[in-house]
Amino acid sequence: MALLEVETLSKHFYEYPALDGLSIEVREGEILGIIGPNGSGKTTLFNCISGTLHPSSGRVRLKGDDITGMSANQVFHRGLARTFQLIQIFPGMTVLENMLMAVQERDGTMLGRLLTREPARVKARAHELLDYLGIDFLHENLASNLSYGQQKLLDFGMALMSKPDVILLDEPLAGVNPTMIQNLVGHIKDLNAKGNTFVVIEHNMEVVMSLCERIIVLSQGQQIAEGMPDEVADNPLVLDAYFGR
Amino acid sequence: MTREGLLVRRFVPLLVLCALLVLPLGLEQYKLFVGSLVLVYVIAAIGLNLTLGYAGQISLAHAAFLAFGAYSVAILQPHGIPFELCLLIGAAISFVFGLLIGFPALRVKHHYLAMVTIGFTIIVFLCLRNFPAVTGGSFGIPGIERPDWGVVSFESDRAYYIYTLLWAVPALASAYWIKNSRWGRAFKSIRENEMRAEALGVSLRNYKLMAFAIGAAYAGVAGALFAPLLGYIDPPAFYIERSIQFLLIVVIGGLGRFEGPIIGSIVVVVLPEILRASQGLYLIIFALSIMLMMLFMPKGLIGLWDLFIERFAMPRDASRAHRAAE
Which residues of chain B are within 8 Å of residue A93 when distances are taken between CB atoms? Predict the structure, then answer.
């Protein structure tokens, strides 16, 4: 059984089909790459999976459970975390607070979160992760004071905090300098080796090819190709979609 | 920031404010009345600071929540119900209406939400005015008595100041607890980035409703203390102007800062009293000083304190790093 299944998913904005009967499967422990030209429906796919948008039709299943049409916070509680195309952090909170915020809703009751203190191990884990990403020395700073690359790392770290079953990364490397790209790619590979499952939207082909074992190519809301990186790269349909006929 | 810097930054304002709270006890009648009014405003503003300052949900319905508390006392007390019970009933009514007014906040934001909450204030005002059998209508309700425990009476201004202080302290303490709890963090996350908050499992519905309801409950408590302080209440006391006054308080004090409501209340209540010496001009001077404060201290008066700490009390290099990073 696939960890995450998307079945004939469609999303229409008025008449325009952003996703048109798309079906994909995410297997446990893989890094699945999603590529495609601008407007091909990649981000809409993420939004429909994660509950940010409600799909017009079709089903989404996580670990066999139907999560179609659930709100984003419910999907999170089922064990799916994501990042967004543009950095989405809490700028007016410290780096540490950002990390703690990323996991505090995962367990326990709402009342418990008012009446009791946060367990110490949560803070320890936040520091551990920040340290792993190399930004723990900034933990007291406001997130807005971080550089772009550091914010990108924080954004990524926040998605990891709750130990989700699947992590959707929407252009994690866009606008990041080459050194930092190596750094982030290293982290993703390393975490994958430890058993984390990723779905990555990325425009940087070189990175996608080196990062992913399997790639799905979207064009106009449909899947036009799927396979190993080099298979996809040579596929004439893919070349058409990107460069026109 | 160094540990000492953090201590100075956090605790000096608190100590100063605690001293300010006790200070009026040495004053005379009218000044004690003003002091009690400040406390009442502090309690109400704590509530608005929670809704607006932390959770980022604009509310101009705060005068209406104040009215629920005030009218609960004014209506129920003559039936022999103890003052404290009336107060709790008022707070509960405010809480429930706070929940209800929270629902529109799930759909609309910013100035649209401001409109919705203004509408609510107007409706409450009209209800108070047009049901004279219960609320006394335009004439209001006179002769509201201050609490009396038999052995101790809080009739005098000094005693009533102490009594309001008895409520203000737990109000401040509970607000401090909420601010530092995971709820406080969740409220802030909604203010900072609603979309990411939801993607991280924050139930926007639950937290927004709670931000409104708890904020309203503080106003309910304040309203209950407000009624016997004046001894007389009528609908215009709970109109939009009052809501705007609370907005002014939390913005001047410092939005989303614990000390904000205290500083703001002192400024908004005490400054006009001092300016009264200038006779006819005092409202103009008051308005001008508010405009200047907003121009030069957009983060409120507590922002001024932050600046002071950054310039003088923090080690040079730390302060420079802080500014460079901005």
Answer: 185, 188-189, 192
